Every structure is written in C-alpha cells, then in structure tokens.
C-alpha cells in the first residue's frame, strides 16, 4: 500500500482542482501538503479497511523531531505503526530507522465509519539530518506507506521571532478578508499560514456530516504575509474539514519562526481594550506581557458575536495576464467599518475558559498536540493545567457575523432591520460563535417589553 508522491505532482493536482486566482499582477505559489491520492478520492459508499492517508510528514532538523499527520481507517491501522525509516538525501542513500509512537488523539463523533486522525511521533538520534522521505513500518518491518518529508521553516540567522497566525479551514473569500488582513498587518503579525480546503462536495448539500463551508469556489490571493496550503478532505474525514490536522501541521511548521502563534478565523478581530486603532498595538510585546513567564504555554480569551448587515456584490475574477474569467459573488459589509469603534460590549458573565468560543495564542515550541480552542497537550518543561485566561477587560474577540437567513444566499441589506433576535438577548446561546452582542437600542427594546411578545411559548 506504500506510495511515494513528489511535491511537483501534488502542486499540479492542486492547480487542476482549485480555482487559481491572481490579484495585482502577482502569481501565487500554492503549497499542497494534502492527502495522498487514495485519500482524495474516497467518494465511494464504503470506507475501505486499511486506509492510510498522509496529510504531511514534517521534520525539525534543529531538534531532530519528526511528525507524521495522517487519517486512517480503522484506528487499529494507526496503532499498528511501529517504526519510521527515513532516507537521507545524498548519493549514499543512507537510512535512519527509529521507533515510532502513534496516537489517535481525538474522540470519535459518530458510530458510522470515519477516517480518524493518526499522529506519529518519531525522534531521530540527533539534529541536523537532511531527510528525503519516510517509510512508516509495522511491527514486522513492512512499509505501510511512504511519504516525502518536508523540513519545517527556519529564520535567517539573527532574525528575531515574532507573532504568526494559523488559519483554517478556508473555503472562499469572505467580506472580512481584505480588511482582516490589513487589520492584522497593522497589529504587527509577521506571517499567516492559511489552509484552503478544496473538494467538490464542499460546494453542495449532501450526506457529508458537516454543513457546506461555502457554496463558492475558493479564491487564492497573494500577499507577502500569507503562506497558502491546500487540504483535500474526503467525505469520510471526521472532524470539521481537517481542522485538527491543519492546526497541528501548522503549529509544528511554525515552531522555529514565531515566538507566539494565534489561532483565529478570518471573521475574528482581536480587540485589545483601550486601543482604538490597530497601529497603536505592538502585538509581540503585548503577548510577552500577558504570558508573563517563558514556561506559560498558552493564553485564551473569549469571543463576542457581533452581528452586522451585509450584501452581495459581483467581483470580476482575474486570471493570468489580467484576463477576466467571469464574476464571483463577494460578501461585503453594509454600513460597517472594522476600524470604527463599535460601542457594543459583550457580557461574558457565566463564561469559563472552555466556553464562550475561546481562541488561543500559544508558544509553538510548547505544544505537543493542538486542539481547536486550546492546547490539547503541552510539552515537558511548560506549565500544565488549564490555559491562562485573559480577562475581557484586557482583550476579547470581535467575531463578525453577517445577518443572513439560514441556508440561503439572500443576504440582509435593510439597515433598519433587527440584527439580534429576542432570544439572543433574553436567552443567549454561546455554544457557537461566541456571546451574542446586540445593539444597545435592541436590548433596550426588549427590556422595555416592546418585543417580549415575540418570545417563544
């Protein structure tokens, strides 16, 4: 079942599968660390036993650690991994075989067959090796799968570490993308790793266990801060479009280039209380102060769900050489500016560090396994226990949510219509997206009983 797949062929496949977009005259480079071919085409009705689909195989030559992130079925495939045999670049074709530690780190979501995340940890005898590929072996020494090894990024000598971001899954352009990008550039973010999920079934309603992330094709846009990577989930991928694979791949890749890594979505704007403009913030210095000590692995803060009016506009797609290739629907804010002070303040009463849609900032070198909203497991030498919670008097997230009628493309354009329901105000549900933050006049209308007749029986 072993398969070796080179980067050039992967890049070609991404180009064929993705709607490749160029803006401002710059050509994109799109890095694909996606599933092997078998994993991409699991569209049949039965999930084959013995499936082993590698997402990425990463090596940190500075520490000698290697990680393989994969999806398997059944989970016994993961537990049967015994060793990693690495081939070293060079004419001698030297190999290094080390013992593997394999885990299925996350719980199953349903009883039906699903691909499960399989994380494989392999530590080399020492740093410095230049690895070409890895053969994952079982206890009998048989190769289960072979995969090219990527070296994690390193900074040029003498260059200071800073603040990075891991963002995914990305489905398509959203109204906040360009504003969001400039906002974090102004804050002082030094690099953004964005993971696009590309699969035809994402654009349609079907029997996939998650709602479609978007019904528009993904658009890749160039910016010097962004590193794009593509993930090709199968219908059998269990957790939200590969989010666990994406976040763990990203935090390991960035361990030697950023002191801090933020995990935010593209509609989330971190708000540092008392700072009205992003350029007033020196983000690295802010996090150094909030972490407080070098052995603190992560901090978390809550999110307020800021509903806003939006509308759809048509934007021409730009192809190579500036040629137009039709139009794409683009979601735009209606009467909202992310740089203008929003007087609404979330009420985080009753929140704890696990709920109210928290998001994390981590020291990447401290992370052994990354969950979505917090670190799943930290490395030895860092503080154990709950992540450090930053109070909303210091920082919180403004999570912008366009007012939309569910499951349609009929975006709200009437600025006089209510952004919040009575239920949002009287019985807020903070499980999905954060604490609803309603306009003050709508809250007052409910308090004055003018809208209470709309409450459910």
TrEMBL record:
<dbReference type="GO" id="GO:0005737">
    <property type="term" value="C:cytoplasm"/>
</dbReference>
<keyword id="KW-1133">Transmembrane helix</keyword>
<dbReference type="InterPro" id="IPR008166">
    <property type="entry name" value="Glyco_transf_92"/>
</dbReference>
<comment type="similarity">
    <text>Belongs to the glycosyltransferase 92 family.</text>
</comment>
<keyword id="KW-0808">Transferase</keyword>
<dbReference type="GO" id="GO:0016757">
    <property type="term" value="F:glycosyltransferase activity"/>
</dbReference>
<dbReference type="GO" id="GO:0016020">
    <property type="term" value="C:membrane"/>
</dbReference>
<feature type="signal peptide">
    <location>
        <begin position="1"/>
        <end position="25"/>
    </location>
</feature>
<protein>
    <recommendedName>
        <fullName>Glycosyltransferase family 92 protein</fullName>
        <ecNumber>2.4.1.-</ecNumber>
    </recommendedName>
</protein>
<keyword id="KW-0328">Glycosyltransferase</keyword>
<keyword id="KW-0472">Membrane</keyword>
<keyword id="KW-0812">Transmembrane</keyword>
<keyword id="KW-0732">Signal</keyword>
<dbReference type="Pfam" id="PF01697">
    <property type="entry name" value="Glyco_transf_92"/>
</dbReference>
């Amino acid at each position: 079942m072993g398969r070796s797949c080179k980067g050039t062929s992967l890049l070609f496949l991404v180009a064929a599968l993705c709607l490749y977009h160029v803006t401002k005259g710059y050509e994109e480079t799109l890095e694909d660390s996606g599933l092997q071919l078998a994993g991409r085409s699991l569209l049949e009705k039965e999930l084959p036993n013995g499936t082993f689909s590698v997402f990425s195989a990463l090596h940190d030559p500075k520490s000698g650690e290697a990680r393989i992130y994969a999806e398997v079925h059944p989970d016994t495939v993961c537990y049967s991994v015994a060793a990693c045999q690495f081939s070293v670049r060079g004419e001698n074709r030297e190999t290094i075989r080390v013992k593997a530690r394999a885990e299925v780190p996350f719980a199953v979501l349903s009883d039906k067959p699903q691909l499960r995340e399989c994380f494989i940890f392999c530590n080399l005898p020492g740093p410095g090796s230049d690895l070409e590929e890895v053969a994952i072996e079982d206890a009998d020494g048989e190769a289960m799968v072979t995969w090219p090894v990527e070296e994690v990024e390193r900074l040029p000598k003498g260059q200071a570490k800073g603040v990075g971001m891991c963002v995914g899954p990305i489905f398509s352009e959203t109204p906040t993308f360009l504003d969001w990008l400039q906002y974090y550039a102004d804050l002082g973010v030094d690099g953004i790793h964005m993971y696009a999920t590309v699969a035809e079934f994402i654009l349609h309603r079907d029997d996939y266990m998650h709602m479609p992330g978007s019904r528009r094709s993904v658009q890749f846009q160039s910016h010097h801060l962004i590193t794009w990577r593509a993930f090709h989930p199968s219908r059998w991928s269990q957790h939200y479009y590969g989010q666990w694979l994406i976040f763990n791949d990203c935090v390991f890749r960035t361990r030697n280039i950023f002191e801090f890594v933020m995990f935010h979505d593209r509609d989330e704007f971190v708000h540092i209380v008392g700072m009205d403009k992003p350029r007033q913030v020196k983000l690295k210095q802010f996090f150094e102060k909030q972490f407080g000590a070098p052995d603190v692995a992560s901090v978390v803060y809550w999110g307020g769900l800021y509903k806003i009016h939006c509308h759809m506009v048509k934007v021409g797609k730009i192809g190579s050489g500036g040629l137009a290739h039709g139009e794409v629907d683009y979601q735009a804010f209606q009467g909202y500016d992310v740089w203008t002070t929003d007087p609404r303040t979330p009420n985080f009463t009753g929140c704890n560090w696990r709920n109210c849609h928290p998001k994390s900032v981590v020291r990447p070198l401290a992370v052994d396994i990354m969950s979505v909203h917090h670190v799943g497991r930290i490395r030895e030498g860092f503080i154990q226990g709950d992540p450090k919670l930053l109070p909303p008097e210091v920082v919180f997230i403004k999570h912008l949510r366009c007012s939309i009628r569910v499951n349609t493309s009929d975006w709200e354009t009437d600025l006089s219509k209510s952004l919040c329901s009575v239920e949002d105000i009287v019985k807020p549900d903070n499980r999905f997206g954060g604490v609803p933050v309603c306009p003050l006049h709508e809250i007052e209308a409910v308090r004055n009983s003018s809208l209470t007749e709309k409450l459910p029986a």
